Amino acid sequence: MQETALSAPVKAWAAACAILGVSLTANTLLTCLLALLAFCQLFFERRWRLCLIFGAFYLVLALLLYLIRFHGLHMVVFSEFYVLMFYNLMPVFLTAWNLITTPPGQLSAALSKVHTPTPVILGLLVVFRFFPTIKTELKGIRQSMKNRRLTGPVQVLRHPAVTCEYVLVPLLLRCLQTADQLSVSAIARGAQAPGIRGSYYARKMHAADFLWLGIWTIGTILFFIIGGIK
Known about the structure:
- The chain crosses the membrane at residues 12-44, 50-69, 81-100, 210-229.
- This is Energy-coupling factor transporter transmembrane protein EcfT.
- The protein has 230 residues and is mostly helical.
- It has two domains: 1-103 and 203-230, no CATH class; 115-200, no CATH class.
- It has ten helices and no strands.
């Protein structure tokens, strides 16, 4: 089923509300309310895979917190502090990842509409697209190493430093090539041209966008009323 994406300003507002709520709340356990709101937004946008992955991770964190609080679970490898931290920051992870994975054209069009300086737009686009790009490059490097039989368990155990080199060197080269391609693409698209710039990806706000702006605003206010402010 096709995704029903909200506009970039709505996603940015959701991320801002999540960051504000997590930063100022007096009860960190109640951040589950903001996480539930973020999951509802992803559900509305039909981002099933993202809901499944983050949902499973969130359930594991909740189970660990329950065992730590009521059954005295002591973790050796992973500290209890990090479990609470990831649980607390889950609303930020959800909304931020939803914003980061927005198509760059929609992000640049939304930022241009509010007269954001061009260097700021280009910098934010590079930051937002860094992790998805690195994920794609790592996937390609992994497949290339697999084709050359360099990822076998014996190879990794016998030569861990060499295996790490096989990953880092191509990754660094690809990062440099991507930076050059991004610079050429930005210049070719008139990023340095003065005056008003248009965009093929300009998108008007629809009823669903205004609805979710109101939901996040009211939801954040209610969250502070229930959980309190530091």
